[in-house]
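seq/struct pair 1
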Amino acid sequence: MDRRVSGLLHQAAGTAVRGREFSKKVPQRPVTLFFAVILAAGILVLLGNSISGSEPLPILDGRFDDWSEEDVVARDAKGDHAGAFDLGHVAFKTDDSFLYLHFNVGKILNLQNGPKSEGTLGLTLDLPDQRQLEIDFRQRRASFSNSPNQRVPWTKLDFSCLPTYASDAVELRVDLQAIGVKENEPVMVNFRGSDTLDAPFEVRLRECAPQNARALSRHAPNDFRVASFNTLRGGLSDPQRKAALQRLIEAVNAEVYCFQEENEEANFRKSASRLNHIHHTHWSNGCGIASSCPLTPLPLNLSRGVAAVCHLQDGFDVIIVNVHFRCCGYAGSREDETRIKQSGEVVERLRQLQAGQYGESWKKTPIIVTGDYNLVGSRKPLSILESLGLKPRSLVGQIDNAAVTWRGPPKESFWPGRLDIMVYSDELTPKNGYILDTARMKPSMLTEFGLLSGDSLASDHLMLVGDFEFAGQ
């Protein structure tokens, strides 16, 4: 139900339940109550389209441009915090399953990690069954009040939060239906730890139209496709996982595949040679490029990456850089500084290439840099790549409108987020694209593309798929 309809209905019933303002019920005469009910019913009929779920849902990508003032439910005073987190505005939306929250925290920091001196922030959800779900962000832990010592896996909550890099605002989602909340049942929301709201606010699941799945196929036959996939510790040659990975790889039918964590060159080349339509490979530092088109290796000498020119059909060339930046840490940590250095190294080499230091042939060739960026610290590694004029692709799930590319096993403390990124230069126009997760696909689509619902579990990362055409083609 959209906010306008909800507000009218509450007014008709003689109550106001928005934000932190609650009005007391006023005794009404039977006739007045009768007309209030008639008015409410009329609003339901006249605005039925709104109630059935026409309110747009957020795309969970850490960008926030699809949140509006209408979604804001609370504004907390500045400077009333005890730790590093200082809540400002809080906004929410719901569908028939998920609660979506967007809030700012007063300064740029990592929600999931940081110095102990910064303290923590917790989210509390008082559920209809009298349990409370608490999510402690810095402890990276979810638990129910009736079993506080038992960690609730992020997968059970279908929880995710973006951006993974340091920011002064975040957006997250949690599946309320998965923990027993039914449509129109009240859930009270508040925060604890470094800061809290003056009063909780109420949310309810609402009827919502099902989302349409994105097509797996190209929009046009001349589009070329690049896929990026961290296969988790040499998955292409793992007997237990290679069949599932091969089905995923062949289902997307890309011209170029960029693999990370393929740490053994011989195993990578042998495994890649078994893939349909893959005839050319290039490997370095655990990163491999496999393609149906000829490759010319580029001697960029990257510490955590590999680069090649891919010679596509019709005489077009594109430079592919496949990276795997260092993991872990938080903004300002040693790991973060290493990622910044590795990203700077990529940009330095590409500037040299554009200046002709690697020959005249590739000075003006379009560029794609993709891979596992591990952006769990600052955003600076991505900003450095953007300084070269490269733009990030806004890829989200083929089904669920979330930019989640990584999710750990059930006991993993880090929640699902976006680690894998694809950036491209102005000479390219983005077309179709998505993040492939077979667990969310319908059986008919799985059958159509020769996939099984558990195939994406063969890695902790999900595959990025991006189609492009050459500008002016």
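seq/struct pair 2
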Amino acid sequence: MENTNYDEELKNDRRLVCSLIYEINCRKEQLSQMEREYNEMTATLQGLINGLIAKINSKDSNLWGWELQYNVTVRQLKGKNAALRLAFAEEPDKNIIYGNTLAIRG
């Protein structure tokens, strides 16, 4: 009887470990996707800034389109950043972000 309880407890522990591993992998993939999107947006923003600088240096007075694009990109970046923070702020005791690295502690 004692052995049966031990086996059942072991099975439950294995299920829990598998579930946690799956959740960690899902979170890692989610973080990686968000980082890729954030990096793409940052690269776009850098290109827009470079374009604005080139326009200013060429003394072109038609900066409205560039300014509009810049503002849209900045809003998108802020949204991505907020989503990233929110995704990992839901469980602050389990997730710690060091720079671009996520540390999961249980």
